[in-house]
Amino acid sequence: MKYEKLNRIADIQTGLVLARKGAKQLELIKEDISQQVSLLDTIEYKAITLKSIDRLGNIDLNEVNTFQSSEELPAKYLTQENDIIVRLFTPVYSCIIKREHAGLVIPSQCAVIRIYSNEILTEFLHLYLMQGNIEQQLAKNEISTQLRSIRTSCIGEVKIPVYSSKKQQKIVNISKLLLKKEQLLNELSQQQSIYNKAIIKSLIQNKMEI
Question: Alpha-carbon distance 142 to 48, whole Å?
Fold first, then answer.
């Protein structure tokens, strides 16, 4: 089986250090020059946070922050459709950017992966990165901080199996079916739990015969 290092099939970079871009406004506020703050031209963006990405690979728009920038941000720091965003802190979750999530600011706590090779499908790569063994592999090279952080260089060293596009798509499709099944089972379990509690409550209140 053929393997390729991720950094040979995709561009990987860290996001923007937001404090630097917001420094101009902060200095004005610290100096209490309110009239200048009010006149300062700013551009409002929505920025991804660590909480924005969940363990299932979804992005929660309720967990993004508003960011006022003193200048227009370079496009490389804004999400684009089919980007893969990876948290650089454990647990290492990732998500694929859909069209409706384009234009979000990528913070320095995340990395963005942009595939340029035709050999790897975006959904397959994302699925592969979501595997627990990959997180363990990355965590071995973690930087020691209170929140365990991951180097982008370590992500780039991850070896990706290169299957045919047809096989990659089949794996992706099967994964989607299994995830849907898991979600249905979870919903059924929740409904069963509600039903069980209702029965016990009725028994305690003597509303059912035993």
Answer: 22
pTM of model > 0.85: no
Is residue 3 within 8 A of residue 125, CB to CB? The reply is: no
How would DSSP label each residue in 71-117? SPPPGGGB--TT-EEEESBSS--EEEPPGGGTT-B-BTTEEEEEE--
Phi, psi values for residue 169, rounded to 5°: -65, -35
Q: What is the CA radius of gyration of the chain?
A: 22
**Residue 206's pLDDT is what?**
81
**Amino acid present at 40:** L
CA–CA separation, 16 vs 109, rounded Å?
8
Q: How many CB atoms lie within 10 A of CB 137?
A: 16
pLDDT digits (tens, 9 = 90+) for 154-210: 999 999 999 999 999 999 999 999 999 999 999 999 999 999 999 998 889 887 777
